[in-house]
Structures are given as C-alpha cells and as structure tokens.
C-alpha cells in the first residue's frame, strides 16, 4: 500500500499526533466511498462441524478502493467509528447483508443466518431499533435469520442496553456476543440481555493446542454457555487439531480458515450450490 505513493500512505496511516488533516482526508474519503458505493461485503461461512454444512455467514466489510484495491476493515472502521460515519456505513452493511441473505433464500438455498457486526456508536443511536425495523420490512428477511454481533467491551449505558436489546429481541432477531472472553464476562448481563449466542474469541482458539490456560478458558466458556442454554461458536479455527478439541468439548459451530475465509458473494453461491447436490 505504501508503494502507491505519499497520498495513500497518509490516507491509511494517520499518525496519532497528526494535526488531524490526515484524519480529515480519510474521513472525506470514507464519505465519498459511501456515496460512490465502493464498499463491499464478504461473507465468512459458519459451519456445523457435525454435518459440514453452512448454517450461517458473517458479513465483513471491505473497501474496494479504485487505486488501492481491497482495503481491510481494520484500516477504516476505527476512523469511521471516531467520526460517526460508522452509523451510515453500518446501516448500509445491515441493509446489504439482509438483502443478500434474502436473495440466497429466494434462490432456494437452505435457510441460513447472517451475522452483522455492530459498533457501539450505532448502538447508542436513538434510532437503531427504528432502522432495523425498516430494514426487516423492506427486505422481508425472517428476523430469526438476522444476528447482531456486539462486543463485551462496547461502552454503553446498562439501562439503554437493556432497553434497546429488549426491543431488538421483541423484533425476533438474534444477539451474539463477539470476541467473548476478551472483555468483562459478566454472567449477570448475559442473562439480563437475553443473549442467544457467544462467539469465543480467536485469540483463545489460536493457542488451544499450545497454551493449557487457553484450552481451559475455551472449555469453560463452552460449558458455561451450555449451562446457560446459550449457543456457542468458535472463531478463528485454522487447524484440524483445534477442530478436534472443540468437538471434544461439544462446541460444534465453527468459523475460520480451516473451512473458509471470508468470501465474495459469487464464491459463497458456489459453495451453496455444491451443498444442494449433497
Ligand atoms: P471480527 O468481527 O472479530 O471478525 C473476524 C475477523 O477474523 C475477520 O477479519 C476475519 O477475516 C478474520 N478471520 C476469520 N477466520 C479467521 C481465521 O481462521 N484466522 C484468523 N487469523 N483470522 C480469521 P476482518 O474481516 O479483517 O475484520 C476485522 C474486524 O473489523 C472485525 O473483527 C470487526 O471487528 C470489524 N468489522 C468488519 N466488518 C465490520 C462491519 O460491517 N461493521 C463493524 N462495526 N465492524 C466490522
Ligand atoms: Ca464479528
Ligand atoms: Ca470476533
Ligand atoms: Ca475482533
């Protein structure tokens, strides 16, 4: 990316003590990219390891930049969050993911869920529930097939969270805690927020085979989820050994490079088409 010259260097690597000009440049580029529809969603399959079938996908945004190519979210999501542009971008992601999931359903593929990452800026926004209600109506997606991923570290007012999550649950959509284990794992809130699923953070999964602490943490999270009657999925699964460990702990839902990386729409459709033949 640096070879692209001075401009792209400053656009994507604003120094922390910069005057704000670089940030402003990036902010304006994101705004323009939204208008020009340069963002694109990739979908990473979530697999039931017992059947090998796709049970859902996670929508992950990329910026299809005209000169830089595919820019990963880590390069622009933080600025989008800082500037508040994550609100329109997040709404675009939600709508696009729901439309796509509905297209797949109408093409006759086995029903599957779509998971969308939510940032706390979107969450605190008064009209999140209104926006999602509109998107459900507009796209006709069955709400049980839409899952929102929130993180434990999201800074939010507990009262607001209870109210908003309660209203989202009333709409019939699913709530998953992403990166589980990296923030405050408050069991009380898991109950209070009526969480449907926990996603074990990839940092624990990565070291399952080499760090017995991480293996213990993963086993504990799985057991706890089972006890609470909550679904559990492991992310960042890359090897057969990790898969076998998760199977031995009765965690059968997985996401990771072992099966598939995030893929563009056409490649997901090829996978779904192959599944129909089975
Ligand atoms: P995340 O939600 O934790 O997403 C999982 C990340 O892990 C993705 O990176 C995915 O490509 C990567 N990954 C998947 N399987 C494996 C694996 O087996 N091994 C390894 N090492 N990595 C794996 P990606 O797509 O670069 O996304 C990074 C982060 O950007 C996401 O982390 C999420 O926090 C954020 N993000 C992406 N899309 C959105 C969005 O639409 N809205 C918001 N608010 N955040 C998003
Ligand atoms: Ca996620
Ligand atoms: Ca995650
Ligand atoms: Ca993460």
UniProtKB/TrEMBL annotation:
It comes from the Bacteria. Residues 23-276 form the EAL domain. This is EAL domain-containing protein. It comes from Paenibacillus plantarum. The chain holds residues 467 to 744 of 748 of the full protein.
């Amino acid at each position: 990316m640096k070879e692209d010259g001075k401009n792209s260097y400053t656009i994507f690597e604003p120094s922390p003590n910069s005057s704000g000009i670089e940030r402003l440049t990036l902010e304006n580029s994101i705004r323009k990219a939204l208008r020009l529809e340069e963002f694109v969603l990739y979908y990473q399959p979530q697999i039931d390891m017992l059947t090998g079938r796709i049970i859902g996908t996670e929508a992950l945004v990329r910026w299809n930049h005209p000169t830089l190519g595919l820019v990963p979210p880590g390069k622009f999501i933080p600025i989008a969050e800082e500037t508040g542009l994550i609100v329109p971008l997040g709404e675009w992601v939600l709508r696009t993911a729901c439309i796509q999931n509905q297209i797949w359903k109408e093409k006759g593929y086995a029903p599957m869920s779509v998971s969308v990452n939510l940032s706390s800026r979107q969450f605190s926004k008064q009209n999140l529930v209104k926006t999602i209600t509109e998107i459900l109506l507009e796209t006709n997606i069955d709400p049980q097939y839409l899952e929102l991923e929130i993180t434990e570290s999201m800074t939010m007012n507990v009262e607001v969270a209870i109210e908003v999550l309660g209203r989202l649950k009333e709409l019939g959509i699913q709530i998953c805690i992403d990166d589980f284990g990296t923030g405050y794992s408050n069991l009380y809130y898991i109950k209070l927020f009526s969480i449907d699923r926990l996603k074990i953070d990839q940092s624990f999964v990565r070291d399952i085979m080499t760090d017995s602490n991480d293996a213990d943490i993963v086993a504990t999270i799985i057991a706890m989820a089972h006890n609470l009657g909550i679904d559990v999925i492991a992310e960042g699964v890359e090897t057969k050994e990790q898969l076998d460990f998760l199977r031995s702990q009765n965690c059968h839902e997985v996401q990771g490079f072992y099966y598939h990386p995030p893929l563009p729409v056409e490649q997901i459709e090829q996978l779904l088409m192959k599944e129909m033949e089975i």
